[in-house]
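Q: Predict the assembly, please.
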Amino acid sequence: MTKVENNKAWWLVLPVFLIVAFSAIIPLMTVVNYSVQDIFDPYTRYFVGTEWFKQVMTDSRLHDALIRQFIYSFTILAIEIPLGIAVALMMPTKGRGASLALILVAIPLLIPWNVVGTIWQIFGRADIGLFGAMMAELGINYNYASEPMHAWLTVVLMDVWHWTPLVALLCYSGLRAIPEVYYQAARIDKASRWAVFRYIQLPKLTNVLIIGVLLRFMDSFMIYTEPFVLTGGGPGTSTTFLSQSLVQQAIGQFDLGPAAAFSLVYFLIILLVCWVFYTTIMNMQKDK
Amino acid sequence: MAEITLNSLAHTYSDNPTKPEDYAIREMQHIWHQGGAYALLGPSGCGKSTLLNIISGLLEPSDGEVLFDGKRVNELKPEERNIAQVFQFPVVYDTMTVYDNLAFPLRNIGVPEHKIRSKVLEVAEILELSDQLKRKAKGLSADQKQKVSMGRGLVRDDVSAILFDEPLTVIDPQLKWKLRRKLKQIHEQFNITMVYVTHDQLEASTFADKIAVMYQGQIVQFGTPRELFENPAHTFVGYFIGSPGMNFIDATVTEKELSFGTHTLPLHPLLLKRLQDMDAQQVKVGIRPEFVHVWDGANDDAFLVDVDFVEDLGTYKILTFNFHGILMKARLSEDQKVPQGKAYVSFPEQWTKVYVNEFLVEVDHD
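A: Predicted assembly structure:
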């Protein structure tokens, strides 16, 4: 039987191609376009090659923001992932308690980003906020608007509060998918609680945890709204993360060229970190 | 090593059971002797897995006692009972190697590593897993995984019994036979009590010396495969064991004999007396297709029946005939003449069993 060549079928890909083009490729190419030109007005533009990239790579403000950004992302990952697993392990699995726990845990996820910022802005104030007042009661002169450490603490706490539920829910669903018989076999093998976690639960959670880590890394690496509302990047530049620097550059100063170059580098960093993480995990899982 | 006694054991999942149907396990008295190879045979939902989980301690019985060597273990958790259980779906610890999987139960009780090593190698040898020891358990095939989960029971010296919960369900047919033989071999080698739950009579009879047939939460018969075949103690055993199952006809006890429809069947006088004394209602006569005698021609003992159809099953044929509106089966041997349209059949007294309320009624002959 001869194979029928019918290249017309490729037309079926067209709708997807168009959607992707408009949603990703064209905007991305616009950014690429900006990043290699110096634009004064719609009719006056100069090709500048890699100059913006050089400028971005040597900008110490951006370096600082990048370091802050990494510290921030790794801090919240280091807290949210273990905490999420712990919460998931403690959540009830049967009866009314289970539904109630699910709803309670999911609530922070339903709150809009800027509202989260506002909530914590008020919550952390020593005069009218519960958390701020509590810290004041403990004798700590807590002020996130003037103390960089306090600002950091608040921003991290806020993210933990907002996003640990996501990790917890992912883990919860992962845990529910483990057949009862694994636990029974472990009991018969006299496994300790720790061994059950280490050799049954954790391995079965690997896949949801990969998703959790990737989502949380990407989101936290691009975080903008909450710190913007809460601290506005301050005090000083202590909580100014990458996207805020980017916005300042692009909208505040209208430096579209450097901002575009910066966006591309930013994008590549996220891609690189995710790729390294994913391939490492996948290699670890391979049968030796 | 242990003898497992089930003393007035019963189990219900309901909070306030009122009728026998509320019990997953109805009150039973049973002993599994040390070193025996037993099968627990029954249809889905008859309570056999429940019973197994009660023995292993995964489930605490609502009534009665479980005794290991005469000692009550109801309150002991599975980890305290020194029992191994192999489940329907192979359970392996995915991230560990085969070696670590086999070593796991020993490491959990703190056995020194050099002892673990020799034990694991020994068990791996028996299970033919020696060349797989360094592999991750995740990549194994289903039968290898099942061997690993069996191996975790065998490495422990303290194991008094191994319980199998339909362990061959997910194994390919050609490997089933091999694994079953392996089990048998292990049983002979280790002298461990083994209880094997299955719904497959072939599996049960090839593995076990004695089979407990379970039906509606009760062990209705406990005996060798031969006893179950020749002398089913309950109509369910007759129906469930054998292929095709036993023929049953409703009958009534009269003064002189047993009658069904226009036919009568002479009975041993003792048995007849016993039935009359019992004032038995619900009487059934059962005979296995293998024991229905099909004659080539008419004679005094034979009933004339209509032949419905004949199935050729290769080495033998199954004759289906209509006896007073009841379809019955008889097994014809290969060289036997196949009756056309009509057939003459008789029920040899020796193989004709009488059941009252589904249970066999017997008397000592001689």
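The CA atoms of residues 20 and 26 of chain A lie 9 Å apart. Residues 60-90 of chain A form the longest helix (31 residues).
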